[in-house]
Each structure stands twice: as structure tokens, then as C-alpha cells.
Automatic annotation (TrEMBL):
Region (Disordered): 1-44
Presence of keyword Transmembrane helix: yes
Protein's name according to its UniProt entry: Major facilitator superfamily (MFS) profile domain-containing protein
Protein's membrane topology: Multi-pass membrane protein
PROSITE patterns the record matches: MFS
Lineage summary: Eukaryota, Fungi, Dikarya, Ascomycota, Pezizomycotina
Transport recorded as keyword: no
Principal cellular location given in the protein's record: membrane
GO cellular component, one term: membrane
Top-level taxon of origin: Eukaryota
TM stretches of this protein: 51-72, 92-114, 121-141, 147-172, 179-198, 210-230, 251-274, 289-306, 318-338, 344-361, 382-402, 414-434
């Protein structure tokens, strides 16, 4: 049954009637006993050393999940030009999109596990899989090896890191939740700036194998910080829960939001895979700028993940997401008409900003829409499953519309723009629905 929404449900999270602060795993939490002096836990601290340490730890989870995923464009270019040149660009794209799809899909399983208290266990497993997958990638020479190591293993590892990075931060903040989530999500963009630069600087000096291993060691160092500082605030619910919150599927607001994210992710990531190819084949620019354009795109995405969070804390996450998603739609259509390097760089800057906001804002919006904070992990896993399906099919379909030899990009660009626009329309519809359910304009 749908839970009616009111203004308080968007500004203050509800919490289960439990008392003690939870530690890292369920085995430790089960040993705790409820206090007889209170029936509810203290409210989220909304700041302080412990809360901001969670942001630091979650930042490195994002750095080594979304950071690696957003950096796949440089790997794709190398795979296509040097490592496995006999395979089509569409075939190579599947390695990256499967990685992203698994990041979202496995979240359906990771969410309930997180809700049951296994935070550090998830991070430890994710860290192992990411590092192991990168090490195996460094040894790969065939397509199937790269697919299994870089696509499947790293993708599953990223899934174990991504959802906990959002869910744990959400339980420590209320009024500052959007900005805390934005700082956390900026780790994905900063990682996607640093890793391509590392790849570019090292590939000619030490070769592909050691370049990938060095990236793996950097990931291991960052994930070790996360293991040291992350700590659950709320204990897990006593009652066991299913992998899915089927009640959410009967809520129109949840379904509209999920479909909007699906459409957005179908079109949103095409530039993150093919902007360098656009510079090389369409603009005939083979300078270092063509390579560093991915870093430009992701660097501006850092601002897009943080500054909209500051605005969202004041005017509401959905009120912020709608105009920024509209900006991304306009930019996606404008890209079709760009004919020079300067225009493409400007597009990359603004599109990176808009895409960063679209990625970072949904978790805080969904958290405020959730009727019970103990189900946040489960619902995040469900809604990102929709996004993951869009991510999986979007770029491979767009790549089939490309004709690199003829420098024909407009069909793929139009496909991408139409789906980003469809996602924007869904967000507007969601805003209209919530006007009738919420007293006040801040949503």
C-alpha cells in the first residue's frame, strides 16, 4: 500500500523504534540490547566528525566505483586502437555498459544486505573484486578475458561499493543530506579525472599491464580508508526483509521516478564513451585535447555533483533536478549542431555539470520519498536497477547508429537527446504528482 506523503516526510526521515547506534556488521549488532530509557534512536547528527568521516569513506567508495566506470572511455579507445582492434566499437562498448549495468543490478541484492547491517563485509568484498578484476584485466589480451575481468568482475565489485556509499551517508544527515551526498558523488567524477590522466601518462612508459596494475593499487589504497572509517548509525531491523520492497511498485511516484531514471540513463552516457572519438573522427582533432576531453567532462561533473546539492538543501532535490535535467536535454540537442573544437569543449563543460547533478540528486530525493529509513537500501537498489537497464542498452544502441568511417554522429546524438528529454518529462510529471501530496513547494 502506498504511504501518503507530507512535507515532513521530505524534510525529516522516519526511523524505526530502535535505540542503539549500530556498528559495522549484523553479528555485532545482534549482541546489542534495546535501551529501556528510550524507544527511538537520537536524530541524525547532521554534522560532526563521525558524520563527515562517513562522507570521506563514501567518497572513496564512489572514487573507485563510478570513478572507474566513468573512466572507461579511455580504456575503450585503447582497446579499439591497440589491444583488440579487430572488434567493433559497439562490441567493445558492451564491456563498459555491462560493468555499469552490474553496478546497478547487483544493488538489488546489496541493498537488503546493507539494511541487515553488513556494511564492512560489503565494502571488503567490493574492494577485493575491484582490485582483483583490475589485476586480471592487466593480464588480458582477448575480448572474452576483458569482458569477464573488466566488465563482469569489476562491475560486481563496484556494485558492492556504490550503494553502501549512498545509503550510509543518508542516515547521518537531514538538512545537509543533499550536499553530503553531492560531495560523496563527486568522488566518482574526481576518480574519472585522475584515472584517465594516470592512464595517459603511464601507458607509453610502462605499458598497459603495469598501468592497469598501478590503477588497481591506487584503488586499494582508497578503499582501505573506507574500511577504516565507515560505520553504521542505525541498527538493522529485527524482522527479515525480502530482496524487493514490492509496496514501492504500487506507488505512482516511485514508478514515475524509476522510469524517468531509466530514460535518462539510456541517453545520458553516450558522450562519456564517444566524446574522444567525436574529436578524432568528426572534428579531426588528434591533439592531446582529444584525450583530455574525458577529464574535462568529468572535472566539470564534480561541480555538478556538489553545487546542486547546496541548492537542493534549500529548495528541494526534485525542484533542483528538473531544471538541470532540462539543461542536459537542451545541451544534448545542441551537440548535434556543433562543428568546431571550441564549441565541443564548451559542450563538454556544461554537459559534465548537468550529468553530474542528474547522477547525484536522485538518492537524496528517493531517501526523502521513502516512508521508512530502514528500507532505504532496498529502495535504492530497486530504483537503480531501472537506471542500470537504461545504462546497459543505451550506449550500445547509440553506437550502432554511428558510422565512424564517415564521421556520422548525428543519429546517435539524436537518440541520446530524445531519451534524456523523456527522462526530464518524467521528472516534471513526478513534480506535478507530488504537488497534490505535499503541503509546501519544497520537494
Amino acid at each position: 500500500m502506498s504511504v501518503p506523503l507530507n512535507e515532513d516526510s521530505f524534510n525529516k526521515p522516519t526511523t524505526p523504534p530502535v535505540v542503539l547506534m549500530a556498528d559495522t556488521d549484523a553479528s555485532e549488532t545482534e549482541k546489542q540490547t534495546p535501551s529501556k530509557l528510550a524507544d527511538t534512536p537520537p536524530p541524525p547528527p547532521d554534522g560532526g566528525l563521525t558524520a563527515w568521516l562517513q562522507v570521506v569513506g563514501a567518497f572513496f567508495l564512489f572514487f573507485n566505483s563510478w570513478g572507474l566506470l566513468n573512466a572507461f572511455g579511455v580504456f575503450q579507445s585503447y582497446y579499439q586502437s591497440d589491444l583488440i582492434p579487430s572488434y567493433s566499437s559497439s562490441s567493445i562498448t558492451w564491456i563498459g555498459t555491462v560493468q555499469g549495468f552490474l553496478l546497478f543490478l547487483v544493488g538489488v541484492i546489496v541493498g537488503p544486505i546493507f539494511d541487515k547491517g553488513y556494511l564492512r563485509s560489503l565494502v571488503a568484498i567490493g574492494a577485493f573484486l575491484v582490485v582483483f578484476g583490475l589485476m586480471m584485466t592487466s593480464l588480458s589480451t582477448e575480448y572474452y578475458q576483458l569482458f569477464l575481468a573488466h566488465g563482469v568482475t569489476v562491475g560486481i565489485g563496484c556494485a558492492f561499493l556504490f550503494l553502501p556509499s549512498i545509503a550510509v551517508v543518508a542516515t547521518y544527515f537531514t538538512s545537509r543530506r543533499a550536499v553530503a551526498t553531492g560531495i560523496t558523488a563527486s568522488g566518482g567524477s574526481i576518480g574519472a579525472v585522475i584515472y584517465p590522466i594516470m592512464f595517459h601518462k603511464l601507458i607509453d612508459q610502462v605499458g598497459f599491464g603495469w598501468t592497469t596494475r598501478i590503477i588497481a593499487f591506487v584503488a586499494l589504497a582508497g578503499l582501505s580508508v573506507s574500511l577504516l572509517v565507515l560505520k553504521r548509525r542505525l541498527p538493522p531491523p529485527k524482522q527479515s526483509r525480502s530482496l524487493l520492497d514490492l509496496g514501492a511498485l504500487r506507488e505512482p511516484t516511485f514508478l514515475v521516478f524509476a522510469f524517468g531514471l531509466f530514460c535518462s540513463f539510456v541517453g545520458l552516457y553516450f558522450p562519456f564513451f564517444y566524446l574522444q572519438s567525436y574529436f578524432t573522427f568528426y572534428l579531426h582533432d588528434d591533439s592531446s585535447l582529444a584525450f583530455y576531453i574525458f577529464s574535462v567532462l568529468n572535472a566539470t561533473s564534480v561541480l555538478g555533483r556538489i553545487t546542486p546539492g547546496l541548492l537542493a538543501d534549500r529548495v528541494g532535490g526534485l525542484n533542483t533536478l528538473v531544471p538541470i535535467s532540462l539543461l542536459a536535454t537542451i545541451l544534448a540537442f545542441v551537440w548535434i549542431g556543433i562543428r568546431d573544437v571550441a564549441g565541443a569543449v564548451v559542450f563538454a563543460c556544461f554537459y559534465g555539470y548537468a550529468s553530474g547533478a542528474i547522477v547525484s540528486l536522485p538518492p537524496s530525493i528517493l531517501t526523502r520519498m521513502s516512508p521508512n529509513m530502514t528500507m532505504v537500501g532496498t529502495r535504492l537498489g530497486m530504483i537503480f536497477m531501472f537506471a542500470g537497464c537504461g545504462f546497459l542498452i543505451g550506449t550500445p544502441i547509440a553506437s550502432t547508429l554511428l558510422h565512424l568511417a564517415k564521421a556520422e554522429f548525428w543519429k546517435a546524438q539524436l537518440f541520446s537527446a530524445v531519451f534524456v528529454a523523456a527522462g526530464t518529462i518524467c521528472f516534471v510529471i513526478l513534480r506535478v504528482i507530488l504537488v497534490k501530496k505535499v503541503n509546501g513547494w519544497k520537494i
